[in-house]
């Protein structure tokens, strides 16, 4: 089957995405619109220029810049609606979207009206075939006390579609053990637990996330390529890595893991980890900031990493398997996916 044939199959299948930042979905034209609301003159070319960086800290600065235009619930509603339209256009039917709660608190914003606004948009999208759920995250570099505050707030927002708690930002800032209290709060509230780990940091960060914080999914985790025993641990416990290949190129994360100035998609460990049986899902991370979308990520798996059609379909199915869904809903999504795959001859 040709590359274009596989792309057509993936486009036709219902899909889920599990590692997707709401604020990282702000396309340049939307950034221009948001800036104008606050009297800031910005061109699309200027916004595009902000989305060019060579390392992870440069990306964090760009993220800080674009979120400075998110000042009211209506701003969050706008970007949620724009993201939902993009997902619908790609036949994404379920998405767990990370919201930078740590940044909201750092900017002294009130999170409750913002979550109410994005939840309203989510409810509007369900009749159109898209279910959105939220994963508020704290920010490593803001410290453990701030993370505890974020966890308490996340625990109180379950009525707005919050299903999990995570941490993001600079994983090298503070030892993971300092954040155990935040994760204990989340667990006590019945929230699922995720975190970014092993993106630019070492394999030990992935271990710490599992053993100290009790996480159930790992954001990125590409440092696992260096540690076969860690890969075996993830496989044995069925803890998936949420892999975002284009992100890892754009932020320089893969280059750092490889000890090189630059890296290419062909060097990404996704296929090797897949072949080794490590649980994986595929995502975009910050699609606007990395000039990508979910369909493009699947294309890269085929073109740059050598995935077959059957392997690509299996990778897409895994996002439903590892979603934080109630068992009955998960079974329904998996049945829908498998029936669609069989109908188009992809199984």
Count the beta strands. Answer: 8
- Estimated helix fraction: 40-55%
CATH class: Alpha Beta
What proportion strand? 5-15%
Q: Determine Rg (CA atoms, Å).
A: 19 Å
- Provide mean pLDDT, rounded: 96
By CATH, the topology is: TIM Barrel
Would you give an account of this structure?
This protein is an alpha/beta fold and 347 residues long. The protein has 17 helices and 8 strands. The chain has helices at residues 3-12, 28-37, 44-50, 56-67, 73-89, 101-106, 111-125, 144-155, 180-188, 203-211, 228-237, 245-250, 253-258, 270-275, 294-303, 309-321, 327-343, and strands at residues 15-21, 92-99, 131-139, 164-168, 192-197, 217-220, 241-243, 280-282. The chain has an 8-stranded parallel beta sheet with strand order 1-2-3-4-5-6-7-8. α10 (203-211) links the parallel β5 and β6. α2 (28-37) crosses α3, α5 (73-89) runs parallel beside α7 and α16 packs antiparallel against α17. The mean pLDDT is 96.
């Amino acid at each position: 089957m040709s590359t274009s044939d596989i792309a057509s199959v993936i486009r036709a299948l219902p899909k889920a995405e599990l590692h997707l930042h709401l604020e990282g979905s702000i396309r340049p034209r939307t950034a221009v619109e948001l800036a104008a609301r606050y009297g800031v003159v910005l061109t699309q070319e200027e916004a595009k220029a902000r989305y060019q960086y060579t390392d992870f800290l440069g990306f964090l600065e760009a993220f800080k810049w674009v979120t400075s235009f998110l000042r009211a619930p209506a701003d969050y509603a706008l970007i949620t609606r724009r993201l939902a339209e993009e997902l619908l256009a790609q036949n994404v039917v379920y998405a767990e979207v990370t919201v930078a709660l740590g940044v909201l608190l750092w900017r002294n914003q009130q999170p409750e009206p913002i979550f109410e606004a994005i939840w309203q948009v989510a409810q509007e999208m369900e009749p159109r075939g898209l279910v959105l759920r939220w994963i508020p995250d704290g920010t490593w570099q803001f410290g453990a006390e701030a993370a505890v505050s974020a966890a308490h707030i996340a625990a109180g927002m379950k009525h707005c579609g919050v299903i999990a708690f995570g941490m993001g930002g600079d994983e090298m800032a503070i030892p993971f053990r300092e954040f155990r209290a935040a994760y204990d709060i989340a667990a006590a509230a019945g929230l699922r637990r995720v975190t970014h780990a092993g993106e630019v940091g070492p394999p030990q960060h992935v271990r710490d996330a599992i053993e100290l914080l009790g996480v159930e999914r790992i954001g990125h985790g590409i440092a696992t390529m260096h540690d076969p025993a860690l890969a075996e641990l993830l496989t044995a416990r069925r803890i998936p890595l949420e892999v975002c290949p284009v992100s890892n190129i754009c932020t320089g994360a893969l280059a750092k893991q490889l000890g090189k100035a630059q890296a290419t998609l062909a060097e990404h460990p996704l296929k090797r980890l897949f072949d080794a049986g490590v649980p994986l899902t595929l995502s975009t991370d910050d699609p606007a900031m990395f000039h990508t979308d979910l369909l493009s990520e699947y294309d890269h798996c085929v073109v740059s990493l050598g995935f077959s059609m059957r392997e690509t379909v299996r990778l897409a199915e895994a996002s439903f398997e590892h979603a934080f869904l109630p068992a009955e809903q998960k079974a329904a999504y998996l049945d829908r996916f498998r029936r669609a795959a069989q109908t188009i001859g992809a199984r």
